[in-house]
Amino acid sequence: MAETGAEETSPKETSPKETSTEESGAEVPEPAPLAELASSALRLEHPVIAGFDGSESSRNALAYAAGVSQRLGRPLLVVYVCSTGVYCEPLTGQVVGVPRDTEALERWLLAELDQVTGHAEVDVHVRTRRGSPARELAAAAEEFSADALVIGAPKHIWHRVAGSVSGWLARHARCPVIVVP
User: Fold this and answer.
1) What does the pLDDT look like over 120-129, one tens digit per residue?
2) Rounded distance between C-alpha atoms, residue 150 and residue 51, angstroms
């Protein structure tokens, strides 16, 4: 049997952490390092992801994704996938890299979002990636544990023959894929 009276009458020095633990009965966590706070601010919890490429169907998909995001109370993550920016010059064989201004691209994406959604009350994040659109969208959906992935329907007939981003995502993505015309 513990004697509580002895603890109350004997003075002891405690750190602020111990004092708050004794008073509330719950342990107070240590403050997080600054780097950890910065990385946690970049985390998104189960966003709705909109794949955007500037086409009319992707604008429709962006508007739909903003509505779904608002109804679900989830953040909206707009993902723009550009090519690797490297190509081979046909005459010389020289490999050329095309630089892209990421900040200007993200400003353009936010301006498109404002035009499409009419300044809807949605927590919006923008990411640009390089590579295959289908693979990068699937990777983003898996990385952020997306609730849904919304993309525009392909308009070209050759996508039906050669395959499309939406078809690949429907087979490989680990979240619901919504294709908007």
Assistant:
1) 788 889 898 9
2) 6
